[in-house]
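quick one, 85 residues, struct below
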Amino acid sequence: MVLLGADEYVCSLALVYRAIADFGPLNFISVGGNWNSYSTQAKDYCIENKIGLYNSTELSGGLWRDDYWNYFKKDKDGNPVRPIK
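---
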């Protein structure tokens, strides 16, 4: 398993492409603290390509899943919470 740690305020699809080009196949991309986020396009691409894309509040949940790329933190009602900006 390969995890890339980044400190991006908002992780874009372009950054995901660059990370893969620079580091090769990745299993996880952690964009940083709970104030960091990712774009909808980046998350959708990562789900399609089985890459877990998380901020620090989501990472530990995704690490324990077999389908880690599909993990979403949930609110009190069970709805997925995506820190998208």
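The first helix runs from residue 13 to 23.
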